[in-house]
């Protein structure tokens, strides 16, 4: 049953990622066609990012309170309805900017809890000794979906417009929902009491932050992720203007760049899977972020499509050396009954600056040009990663983690149930 659950979860995440590639490119393209404004494109990302951050905070205990697989299916269903709004209005010839913003906001709110819930399920259906590989396979399938999706979305958008791409996004969500509903029923998380009270719910939200109080090195890592994500969203939000104004190419080129990034990610994940357990985590994680930043800065100075392809490929290959190691650290150090809320807070911290990055990306590109944006967006994570390497507290992430794994958080259930869970872990 566990293998079936793992592969079903793998299929669901891949289908969602494949559909997201179509929906994201289509909505960005439609916004640019309707307005021609870089600020409007930044505002689209902002309309998705703010609800996402808010729900990750206030909804973080839900992944531990509710049956996780069914909860994911409900979230995917709401995202399906959100995409139906701009698609239906577009087919009727009545599409307006607010339809796209509403769809992005609703989809972002649901995405806030979809991936944290999925990450909470994985440690329970995968071998604890192979978590790095389990997360790498998940990331690899997401990368494979992102490899095919943007290229196909770009070709379809260039040939037939953006609305067919939104239709494919809806089909992918439908298939993902069906897959989730067919999975074996997993035990309901029992970290929270059955009855609801506001005091208990607020305490459960706070427990998600307690992990980072106990492991400050992990909090520093997530702050680094937030800086990196700020830079990344600033760059990728401006990819449509970059392709059209700097490279003078069409949607197919946009899809090709995204595909090159995904192909690089697959290569990086393949290398991680072959390497197995990495002990020098601090140097590998921060080194990958710093190198990506340097490449991004150089990319902004070289307005060449072949160079852009090489830059996104290498950056994509380096990304998993941070992401998969971060996921495996959380999988090993966070107690099973707190996985949902801690992963929600993890994504909250990591994405806390993305709304700012999305809006700032549009503002900087509008005022100083896209090349200046790429230069600034690359220097920021490079400087922060270099500084973080000097922090002695991060050395605890290197080497054997067995002593850290023993420092679990206090169980949030009634005292009578705690000894059995501790023994099981």
Identify the notable features of this structure and list them briefly.
425 residues; mainly alpha; 19 helices; 80% helix; globular; disordered C terminus
What does this structure look like?
It is found in: Cell membrane. Its main location: membrane. Keywords: Cell membrane, Membrane, Transmembrane, Transmembrane helix, Transport. It is a multi-pass membrane protein. The chain is an all-alpha fold and 425 residues long. 80% of the residues lie in helices and 0% in strands. Helix 2 runs antiparallel to helix 16, helix 4 (68-91) runs antiparallel to helix 5 and helix 8 crosses helix 15 (339-350). It is globular. Residues 409-425 have low confidence and may be disordered.
Question: What characterizes the major β-sheet?
Answer: none
Class from helix and strand fractions? mainly alpha
Helix content: over 70%
Q: What is the mean pLDDT?
A: 82
Radius of gyration: 21 Å
Number of helices: 19
The number of E-state strands comes to 0
Report how far the terminal alpha carbons are from each other.
20 Å
User: In what range is the share of β-strand residues?
Assistant: under 5%
Overall form: globular
Membrane topology: Multi-pass membrane protein
GO molecular function: transmembrane transporter activity
GO cellular component, one term: plasma membrane
Subcellular location: Cell membrane
